[in-house]
Design brief:
Order of helices and strands: HHH
Distance between the termini: 88 Å
Helix content: 55-70%
Radius of gyration: 24 Å
Structural class: mainly alpha
Keywords: Membrane, Transmembrane, Transmembrane helix
Oligomer: single chain
């Protein structure tokens, strides 16, 4: 009995496939560090506001600056840290939007101007 000849549909050998490596791998520690830094950043700026509109505007400014840093990190730095920054900034903006919406719903007046 002779061995079966492969059909070629599933090649058994050939040139090795290339292995691509991420230059700045995303790690859990990097994401946690970015999240902690962004949370502290947003809290510090949020404490500058003395009212709901002040808190919301400071949070928007702090989040915009944080996203600029995240964009720089995505381009040439640690992408895990950038991911943590982006996630926490989005959450911070959501909290500020909820605070504005609650104030608007209870007072009937748009609080941002």
């Amino acid at each position: 009995m002779s061995p079966r000849t492969p059909s070629g549909l599933f090649p058994a050998s050939g040139p090795p496939r290339p292995t691509w490596r991420e230059p700045h791998q995303v790690t859990g520690a990097g994401v946690a560090a970015g999240a902690a830094g962004a949370a502290g950043w947003l809290i510090l700026f949020g404490l500058l506001g003395r009212s709901v509109p002040g808190y919301a505007w400071w949070t928007v400014v702090a989040g915009g600056l944080a996203w600029l840093v995240a964009l720089l990190l995505v381009r040439s730095g640690d992408r895990g840290v950038a991911t943590g920054i982006a996630i926490v900034t989005a959450g911070g903006w959501s909290v500020a939007a909820a605070a504005v919406a609650v104030r608007w719903a209870t007072s009937g007046d748009w609080p941002m101007w």
